[in-house]
Predict the structure.
Amino acid sequence: MAALLRSARLLKFSPSSLFLFTGTKRNGPPLGRLYSGAVRTSRTGVCSVSDKTSSCVWPYATGCVRNYTVATDPKDEASTVVQSKQAQQFDWALTKLDSSVRRTGRITKTLLLRLFHDISRTGYPSGNQALLLLRSCGSLLPEVPLEERTELAHRIWEKLQEMGAQYDVSHYNALLKVYLQNEFKFTPTDFLAKMEAANVQPNRVTYQRLIAAYCEKGDIEGASTILGFMKSKDLPITEAVFSSLVTGHARAGDMESASNILSVMRGAGIEPSPDTYVSLLNAYAEKGDLENMKKILDAAESADCTLMDRDIMQVIFTLAKAGHQQHIPEMIERLRHERGFVPDAMNLCLSLITQGQEDTAFSMLKTFPTLQSDNNDASGLGNFFLRHCIHMDTPLEKLVHFCKRLEELNLHNAPLTFTLYCALGAKKIDTSFTLMKLLKEQNLPIRPHYFWPLLTQPLKDKNTAVMLEVAKGMQELGVAPDVETLSNYIIPVFPNAQAAREALEGAGITMSEGLLCSEIRVKAATNLAEAHTLLSDSSFPPLDLNTFRGSLIAGFRRSDDVESMAKITGILYKDERFSQKPAESTSYFLYNLIDNMPKAQVQAQEDKLRSFFNKLHDQNIFISLNIYRGIKNLLESYNTPTLIKDVIALVEPKDRLSSDGASATPRVTGTEAKLLALEAKLAELKAENKPLGSVFKQTIQTLSAEENLQRALELKQQNEEEMTVGSYAILINLCCRLNNVEEALNLKRELSRKDSSVALDANKYIALLKTLAVNDRMEEAMDVLKEMKEKDVMLNDANNTSIFHLLSAVAAKGNIPDVRRLQDTIFTLGLAKPTANLCSPVVTAYLDSKDVSGALEAALECQKLYNQLPRIHDVIVALVEKGDTDLLQKAMDCISQERGERTMLYDLFFAFLQTGRYREARKIIETPGLRARPGSLQWYAEKCILSNQMEALEQMVEMTAKLFECDRDEMYSYVLKLCKEKNDWKKAEAMWTKMQEENIIPRERTLHLLAEILKNNGQEVPFEVPETWYEQTAATSTGTPPQQGHSPPAATAEEIGAGYQYRLLALCKKGKAKEAYGVLKEAEKTGLALNPSPYDHLIRALMAEGSLEDAMVVKGIAESHLPGFKLSDIAVSLLLISYCKRGQVKDALEKLKSMLQVDQVPSKLAITRIVQGLGEHGDVAGIQEVESLIKNLGTTFNLSSMLFVNNAALAHIKNGDMDSAVELFEGLYTSPNSTNPSMSFVFRKVLESGNDKVLDKLSAMAERLANHFACYRPASDLFLQLLDTDKVEDAKFMLARCNGVAEQKEVLMSYLSQKAQISGQVGKIKNLMSLIPDFAEKEVLYAYLMKSHVLDKDLTSAKALHKQMQTEGIAVDELSLKRLATLYHDAGEPVPFSEPPESFKFYADKLKEKAAKSQMTAQE
């Protein structure tokens, strides 16, 4: 076709000869060979080729105004296979654009670019998505200049093509439409040639739009050539063609032929529609022929062809572009202000402004009906007009004129101010200053913060010239920069405040007072001595303390200059320049100072703070009692009570006595209040001669929590008859915590005398053992161990850890015989199984005492008795350092005999490396026949990384170069990991050179690791980093679209390939991954290559079934056919989850990082599984790394707020670092901004593991938070988790310790609601109701219980509950009755009450409405 157009030498002729057909109706009869379908007219500006879909566009370009579809071409329909592949991704993108178009009739460039980025990131943009983006680059962007729209379309086209988008004729047609709407000049023959080169055949719509392109240029000859070709192809001639011909004849200067087109259409049996009339109107509008325009309007009206406002607006646009503004009022008068007028008129205004026709746009703006209001209130609808004028750099004179007119017409209440707002946002300095001058002339205020947007970029670029220009402008306007402006925007541009002062003075800018205020901020934050000099100067102007309080606090926190800080505080205390009430303000300042210091910093700087308080006291600076109490509470929460006595010295003398009294009898809060209440209750029960029962036990528990042993013993002595086993256990444990061995023994003996059969729990026994052992009471300790054996006290893994700490505590005292005796007794009695960990304290004791011989003997004895070699590496290292060859030989002989020669050689190798004896180490590792032991090498490498031993690690890597079966890439990766930790890019680069010398082929992860180290240090990466982005390299040299090379040339082969793809996708959607895998194998046998998407779908389906190996095989097949094949976001997410399920969390983390590097986004579940896996492996750093990666991504994943906190805590627990876990939670829950999130996940995991020691620690933390900080969420979570695991007695005990849990109704109701939705949970609900019977109304509780009985299909229990409710006089709600009736029906029994007639939803909604009303009433 392109060749035909180039070579055709056709005579000029009128195209009317092509249309000699009869028919008078608009939707006329068939037109023989030229027409094969009913004409379809539409009023929505259709530019698509589908008969069922339309893209509503108002094209502002001249000509081809309405390109309606009148016949459907099957080639333009998206194939079923493509739709099924991309439907889900396409829908969300379409919804976003469609929402914008429906609401405003346009889209913004920002929205389009965001969607383009999102679609690109998926990896494989679908044809529909490409089409969507291309179509949006035309008249839907009225705010974007025409040239920029076309550039954007080309950018999208090229980018998506690079990413593998398959372009068909619909995409080329969409691009043609964009060209027409954007008035882009192109050669139709070249366009056709590109389509031919891409093996894409043009269709009818292509020819229509090419005709339009020729007609836009007035080239009737070219248009006629295509018309003739369409005739030879029997393609229908649609109304769009006639409309184009009207434009073509008009542009060619033949208005007579243009007018005759209407007759030709009627002769062809097509009645002209509004599109054709609008085309003819536009033709006359370009000529400025108002008379003929009126005639055409009258003719359209006579033909009963009503033109809409949108049609008239197109004519207005044409008149404005052609320079015939004098005729525009005539057209404006014809507007009828139909529904939808405002968005269409807004788009017209935006297009006119974009084209430089602001005056016409303003004329349209004045016609907006919604701007006229009955009460004469000004409206802001003109905002869009002013904003776009600013963006398009409309001359300022015009802008000011528009603002005045808007205000005069009462169409805007503050147009000038809003215009200034837009100019500032667009960072247009000259425009902004001119507008500010105008505002000032009108006596409107100019604020310093108006200039901040103009100062933002200079601050970022450190551009002093622009900053000074803005500062000069401020001075000219009489606006002095305030402290915020100077501190945050002006001074930071310069190296220091002095440089800023000099530059400003040099530019003639006087702002000494403001600059001085800003300078004090800088000095306060960086140099307290200089700040004191400034503040003590009597010439320093008055300045509110609040303006520099934060800087002063920050300066004190990072400085050790206590003297200057105390002097500054003294000035603030006495000088009224900084506050009207200086003493009071200074008191609050001191409170804020402590409040703004983190707990760790207060503890670390305790001496500094004490010195500060003492210096304040020396200056007679006093604080009020209330401030003292606030500081006291802060210091107590920071665990620094020793500072309180220094603070109390600052209390005013008149209040000090009451303060001392308060200290002696502190305010009743938290645990103190509870204790007083319990003691009062005890006294009351005694007076009434009633049993003390649980109240006594709760009092003992509370005293134990307060560690008040003396009072607890007094209470015990007064109430011996009330002492139970639990009470004794609490007191014994308290004595052990306080290391009161005698009292602990006395209590234990008393308990045994009362009931010799009673046994304590394992933790209590171990605590007692530890207390006895560290106090040299070994005989009593042996008796306790024997008692544990006699009473069958079972120890779990957590108890074994406690035993280890017990033995280590005794070992730390250096009492080796006692350690041995304890260890032997524990193992002999069978209380614990011998492990290397439990055997190690004996060896540790010898090593700590420098008795290496004894350490070796102890280790060998453990091997002989228990088959364990504890701390053998450390023993060998000590022997090597000591140089005792005889003992070393003895150790080696034993290891060789017990563990094998290879183990002995590796132990010796690592010992020589550890001690720096590299020559001996090399001899060992070069032993003939020695093979690599990956596990041992990894153990030592990780030990080196952990202890930052680069030399030893590097030596190991170098020495193992010739070790048989040694994974060299793995070895170098260890060095690179340490390089990353140390940020040593030079060492990493040296390792890369050595790897090349060894001719090592590095894995992808190693290259990524090395590249990351180099990039982080600004170094060039000397190799190509493996890309996972889909790259098309097949046609780099030829320029042929790569996908064409993968498609079979024959049409039948294409159909076969499509068939395989359709079957494969269908099976994947049905969950038949194995069958789909079989289909792929069939396709492989025939040599067919599929598109990327089927491979990706199959990989996802296989991984979902757990077939990771098969999925990787499919990935390999895809990579063999498609160079650079990349998994989609969903597939990679599934791969991450698969790794986590298999325990390969490190691999999952590495994959996550590589995924994010190529702009792929993991799923919420994948991130959750990785973080949980890292928590289970004790990898705190990994969790922090994931959290950082996700935060930097900037995408909202809707992750649980506690995901990282809970799993970091579990990681600390896994590592045995309970203190860090507790500190993490305490910091979270004691934060002022805490939302009290749930930590149930941690409690559940700990309970599942059976780790009682950890549980005790967390329980103590929960109690402490509840009793000291009134934070009951952790205690509530633990209580409910204990209930959930059927530990009812423990839950009861927890509730007794923390009564406030019973008041947490929201948490309890949430648990109740959750359990009522799961069958088999009735027991747990009843347990909760028995422990806390009144946390909700009975009718609510019984309703949930009834729901549970119905879920369990337990009619008997439901009947009993119904009877109980009736007996208790509780009204049964209709929803519960409906549920109970259903249960009766299912059992085939008659319903003994009137069954509610409505649906379940009706009654559920009714209850919700009732609850909502109750809540509103309560709030009122």
Notes: The radius of gyration is 42 Å. Residues 80-104 form the longest helix (25 residues).
